[in-house]
Amino acid sequence: IVKMFGRSRLAAATRSLATRASPLKGLDILSANQFDRTKIEHVLKVAGQMEKLVNTQGGTDVLKGKLLITLFMEPSTRTATSFQSAMLRLGGTVVPINEAVSSAKKGETYEDTLRVLEQYADALVIRHPQKGAVAHAANIVNIPVLNAGDGAGEHPTQALLDCFCMSSLKGGLDGITLTVVGDLKFGRTIHSLAQLLAHFNNVKINFVSTPNLAMPKEVLDAIQGKVTFTQSYMDQLGSKVGEADVLYATRIQKERFESEAAYLAEKGSYCISTDFLDKSHAKKDLVVLHPLPRVDEIAPSFDSDPRATYFKQVRYGMLTRMALLAEVLRN
């Protein structure tokens, strides 16, 4: 009886995904500023449903017959594979394209590439090294476009998965204290995440960086008066870690610097380890996240620490992207 009841619940969940109205149907997913609290919580709820479906039956066929093209003009492991896995687990089909095989190598314009791909796909997922290039794509094609990272601009799907991860592990987002450390100037993940967290109550964000890699003014202006935030340099990292519920580390992004010398001046500015957290009096239930890849900002020995959550974070990404694709594309 329990097994039959469980199957009936799963079947009901699958039917619900296929039949209920979606507030995201047919929309582009370009920026965190598209989302209010209601929409964020809707995505997290659907991601939770996806988690149950994946854990019990491997996925669903709600997007059977749909085709997604992923166009990555920058290198990617996690985001590209995450979107591809998400689409396949939804019953859809994926055609992956990267910068190495694109006809851009032959001189084809970005705009022409987009107009060609539009003829094949039901939606495009795009990563591009230039800020604003994904939004530009959405103005050219007439199918949904999802932003998988545009230079130093935004990464809204990463921010949504971070919200799902934190909410699942900490029991919600209201009242959370988040310390973010690393490259905040070019770190598009935290640009989007800060804007999403601004919709929740009593959130505090501690931004910690070197002077040259501080949070951009436009992002701080966007969250001003909505969340409590502090700005500190690396010498205060220990105290900011000590008060955090979540520590979000980001790498120093070599590819964003104008010269090797400028990068080397910032490289190695911090390293998270069990010893460092203990000296900082970090909470025993601290959650340590990282959008990956890491370089030297988290010691490999820390991976066995129970507070290390960045590999689990990857799975939350697939589930969140399943939710987004299903909500945008389903009939």
List the helices and strands and how they pair.
Layout: H1 2-19, H2 37-57, E1 67-72, H3 78-89, E2 93-98, H4 110-118, E3 123-128, H5 133-140, E4 145-150, H6 156-170, E5 177-181, H7 188-197, E6 204-209, H8 217-223, E7 228-233, H9 237-242, E8 246-249, H10 260-266, H11 274-279, E9 287-289, H12 310-329
Parallel strand pairs: 1-2, 1-3, 3-4, 5-6, 5-8, 6-7, 8-9
Q: What composes the largest sheet?
A: 5 strands, parallel
Structural class: alpha/beta
Mean pLDDT over the residues: 91
Strand content: 5-15%
Shape descriptor reads globular
Tally of helical runs: 12
Would you count the extended β strands for me?
A: 9
Whole-Å distance between the termini? 33 Å
Regarding quaternary structure, what we see is: single chain
Secondary-structure element order, N to C: HHEHEHEHEHEHEHEHEHHEH
Radius of gyration: 20 Å
Provide the spatial order of strands within the biggest beta sheet.
7-6-5-8-9
Low-confidence stretches: 1-5
**Helical amount among residues, as a percent range?**
40-55%
Structural features, described:
By secondary structure, the chain is of the alpha/beta class. It starts with a helix and ends with a helix. It contains twelve helices and nine strands. Helix 2 (37-57) packs across helix 6 (156-170) and helix 2 packs across helix 12 (310-329). The chain has a five-stranded parallel beta sheet with strand order 7-6-5-8-9. It has a four-stranded parallel beta sheet with strand order 2-1-3-4, sandwiched between helices. The protein has helices at 2-19, 37-57, 78-89, 110-118, 133-140, 156-170, 188-197, 217-223, 237-242, 260-266, 274-279, 310-329; strands spanning 67-72, 93-98, 123-128, 145-150, 177-181, 204-209, 228-233, 246-249, 287-289.
